[in-house]
Each structure stands twice: as structure tokens, then as C-alpha cells.
């Protein structure tokens, strides 16, 4: 005999399923910046969209537009805010100074496990998203596959960067390189690969697979064997697009906007990038140099300077940097994801 509580639960599930079956189909446009052969597309966003379609009984159909078809990567927050797209994949550090709190997540040598680290990132930012990204619904947050330095000469200690021009992926890495005596240059990945060929830069910060996908490995034969940085990313939803959904459809979307999905999403992307490391390891023309514990401490000490600069910058905006940073590092430690 079914208990009253169990019967009530079955009734709720049946009602929800019935509501979804009756809902008119909704089409949502999702935009991101990478090509379809990148794992972000086929291993992260496609499975997430498919899961939403299945959970909504086909009433939510997410159409994915890759490779900046609808707008450049740096505009994706505004695109989600303004309803140009319904959903946007956004690199949280791509607009220097715009979101100072979340930029703490990109300080070098923060994360050792992208999955658990992404859970920590999502949970930490919940306290700040409503004020710092108030224009959108912050659905999920996760780290990318991580990156390191690929160069024309061996780089083992910060002093090895002195005098070099290096492509930087974000403000935090740029500050690290500046402290080491390099001249950081921020440019798109495609531009960076071309700059290497022309001799405009001596080194680049890239994930493992990307350095090969864009052909930069033809000129860059030395690779630091460490995850020097990880980029913070987010799935953002236009608020009006979300509000137009039925209650049952909102419940489906909400079930895909949480810490569990944030932890799950980066796995395929991380695996994809590290496949690139394996390829270079087997190539005798390339040198993948491990960083000794002693040398790693030099890099980490330099990263303390990056953190100090960030804390100074956010203090000018009324943010208590030590508190904010401590909350993130405590969660990373809790999930055993600290570097």
C-alpha cells in the first residue's frame, strides 16, 4: 500500500510531467565563441542542451550558435543582458575591470581540480552574482581546461620571462608576467597564433590542445608542464527569456543551473585539452619541462603579488578583498581543489 507522502510525491511528478507535455515548444538561442570541433561545443554545451530538451519532454529546444556567429566573445554578457541571445557562454575575465569580484577566481595557481574547483566557484559566487551580474541569470559557472606557457625557449623560473613578449589570456596572468619582467600582450587566440608566426610575440598562454589546433606549435617548442591558470566561465540566461517559461519549464532549467552541473560541465573540456599534452609528449621536436617544487614556489610567490594588486583594485571599489578571496580559497580547500 502506498503511503500518503509517496502518493503525494507521485502526484507532483505526474502533474509536472503532464504540464511539460502540454507546454508549447520554446526555442532558445545559445551563443559561444569556439568552433564546433572544440570540446566546449560538443562535450559541454551540446550535452547540457540535450539534457534540458529531454527533461522538458521536448518543450525546450536550445539552438547553439558557435564560433562567435552572433557576436564577439567579449560582447556575450551584453548579448545575454539585452536579449540578443537567450543564453550566452561568457568568459568572466574577458572585460578587464568590469566584474572585479569574480576576477579573483582567475588569479594564477588557484585550482588543481577543474570539476571540484568549478563547484567551489559556483557556490562562492552565489553571494555576489545578484549584485555584480544583476542583469542576467547566472546559471552555471566552471573553469576551462586550464593553460600554461608555450614558448620559443625553455621557461622554468619567472626570471626566464624577462624581456619576452607574451600573449596573456586575462588581466591576472598579464600581471604575473609583468611582475616577472615580461611584456604581456592581450589579444584573441587567433591573433596570437598569427603573432607567433610573425615573431611579434615570443610566447603565449594557451591550453594544450589549442596551441596545436591553431598551429602555434610550429614555432613554439617549449612548454611548461603545469596548469598556470584557469579561466572562469559562465552560462548566462536572459531574464526575460527565463520569465517567459512556464513554471514546469523553469523547474527544468533550474535543475540544470546549479553546483552539480557546474562540477560536471568542464570534464570533457579538460580531458580534451590534456589530450593535447599527450600528443606533444610523444613528439620529439617538443620539450615539456616539469617545474620543480622549488621553482614552483617562485611562481606562487609571484602570484601573491597578483593577488595583492587585485585586492588593492577591489578595495578602491568598496570590496573587502581578503574576505572575498578567503571565502573562495576555503571552498577550494573544502573540495580538495586548491592548487
Automatic annotation (TrEMBL):
This protein's record includes keyword Signal: yes
Pfam family name, one: DctP
Keyword tags: Signal
GO term, biological process aspect, one: transmembrane transport
NCBIfam families found in the cross-reference section: TRAP_S1 (NF037995)
Name of the protein in its database record: TRAP transporter substrate-binding protein
Range of residues in the leader sequence: 1-21
Highest taxon of the lineage: Bacteria
Stretches that traverse the bilayer: none
InterPro entries: DctP_fam (IPR018389), TRAP_DctP_sf (IPR038404)
Organism: Borborobacter arsenicus
UniProt entry tagged with the keyword Nucleotide-binding: no
Cited SUPFAM superfamilies: Periplasmic binding protein-like II
